Amino acid sequence: MKSSRATALFHTAAGTALLVTRNPPNAGVLNPVCPLGVAVSGPVSFSIVASAMDHTNENLAEVTATSLVRSIGVSDRTLRRLFLRETGMTWREYLVQSRLLRAMVLLAEPGPNVLEVAQTVGFASPSAFNRAFTRYTGESPSSYRRRVTTPPP
User: Fold this and answer.
1) For position 52, what pLDDT does the model report?
2) Which of 37, 78, 93, 118 is the most buried (most CB within 10 A)?
């Protein structure tokens, strides 16, 4: 069986090189290649946050913080700290925003009803979806759909 081991080498501004592996047994583990006792930031933290965003957007309906940290190979605390530092928002805020943006796209298309959209993007209940959507956009999902799908006069 062919191994699909993915690795990447990052060099920090301080001269520390880090090897990131994406497969078991060291999935997502940062392995110092040339440790200089310098805290990791810059390209590595950006890569972790970018991986978190990618995984989140690819798995909107079922992603959890636990599944995310397992997938990218960092601790919950590390993810929270890096995500907030790099984006200015928490991962949970990013998740809700991503779900709502995807919902807006789906509601602008003919096809799924509001309940189906809520389920597709990962909201546990229609009322939670309605509440979050209204808070984010200032209008209900139904009125948003009517507004964006009604042709101009």
Assistant:
1) 94
2) 118
